[in-house]
Amino acid sequence: MLALNNKSIKQTLNICGGFIDYFRDPARGTKWSPFNGQARRRQIFDALTGLKFTAIIETGTYLGTTTQHFAETGLPVFSVEGNARRFGFVKARFLRYRNVSIRLGDTRSQLRNILAELGADRRNEPLFFYLDAHWKMDLPLADELDLVLKSCAQPTIMIDDFEVADDPGYGFDDYGKDKALVREYIEPFIVRNKLSVFYPAAPSSEETGFKRGCVVLAKEAAKDQLALLPQLRLSPS
Ligand SMILES: C[S@@+](CC[C@H](N)C(=O)[O-])C[C@H]1O[C@@H](n2cnc3c(N)ncnc32)[C@H](O)[C@@H]1O
Q1: Closest Cα to residue 235, out of 156, 181, 165?
Q2: 171-198 mean pLDDT
Q3: Rounded to an integer, what distance in angstroms lies between the CA atom of residue 178 and that of residue 139?
Q4: What residues does each domain of the chain span?
C-alpha cells in the first residue's frame, strides 16, 4: 500500500515537473517540425486527410510536435504518453485545445479505453492512427495493431520508424530479434486482415528531416482511394 502511494506521489510530482518544464520553455516542442521534420511525410498525412477521418489517434506523444499538426486539423485528437513528465509537458501545451485529449499510461490500456469511448458508430468511421510509441525494449506495436484492427472498420494506420525495404536511405527501428519494424513483424496482420500496404512514393533522397521510414496500412475498402494518392506507392510484395 505504502509502495503504491509512493508511486502515485512520484507520478504526480513528475506530472507537475512536466507542467513547469512547459511554462519555463514552451518552445521546447516546436524546435523541429511534425513527423520528425519530414516534409514529404507531412504531405502524405495531409493527402490522407482527404479520406475524411473523424478522429486521429496517436501513440507516443513525446513533446506533442506531431500532435500539434493533428490538432490543427480541428478533428478530435487522442494521444497517449507513458512518461509522466512528458505527459505533464503536453498536458500543459494542449490545455487550450478543446479537441485534444492527452492520456497518461501504457498505449495498450489507453488505446483500449479510447476505442471503447469512441463507441461502435465512430469505430465504423474512417479513423487515422499514428503508431509511434517505440522507444527502447518494450515494443507495444503488435498489441496496438491487434486492438485497432479488431475493433475498427476503416482504420488508416501509419507506423513511424518502419523499414522501406527497397530504400535503405530511410531509417527504421530495430530492437533485436522479433522486434524490428520490418514487413515480417506485421505480416500476420496483413494476411489476417487482408491489408493493403503502402510506402512513401518519394525516395529518401527527396525527404527532409530525420528521414525515418514509414508504412501505411488500410483495409480493403480504402485501398482504391489510397492507391490514387501520388504521395504513396503500393508495396511491391
Ligand atoms: C518517438 S517518441 C514519439 C514522437 C511523437 N509521436 C512525435 O511525432 O513527435 C516515442 C514516445 O512514446 C512513448 N512510449 C514508448 N512506449 C510507450 C508505451 N508502451 N506506452 C506509452 N507511451 C510510450 C515514449 O515515452 C516517447 O515519448
Answers
A1: 165
A2: 96
A3: 10
A4: 2-25+34-234
Over residues 60-66, the mean pLDDT reads 98
Q: Check pocket membership of 135 for ligand 1, CB cut-off 6 A.
A: yes
Single-letter code of the amino acid located at 204: S
- φ/ψ of residue 99, rounded to 5: -90, 0
Q: What is the pLDDT of residues 140-150, one digit of tens each?
A: 999 999 999 99
Nearest to 112 by CA among 139, 150, 154: 150
Interatomic CA distance for residues 57 and 101, integer angstroms = 10
At 135, is the pLDDT very low, low, confident or very high (cuts 50, 70, 90)? confident
CB of 173 shorter than 6 A to ligand 1: no
Q: What share of the chain is helix, strand, coil (3-state, %, to 5)?
A: 45, 20, 35
CATH fold, domain 2-25+34-234, is Rossmann fold (3.40.50)
CB atoms under 10 Å from CB of 224, counted, come to 10
**Is the pLDDT confidence value at 3 over 90?**
no
Is pLDDT at 128 greater than 60 in this prediction?
Answer: yes
Q: Is 106 in the pocket of ligand 1 (CB under 6 A)?
A: yes
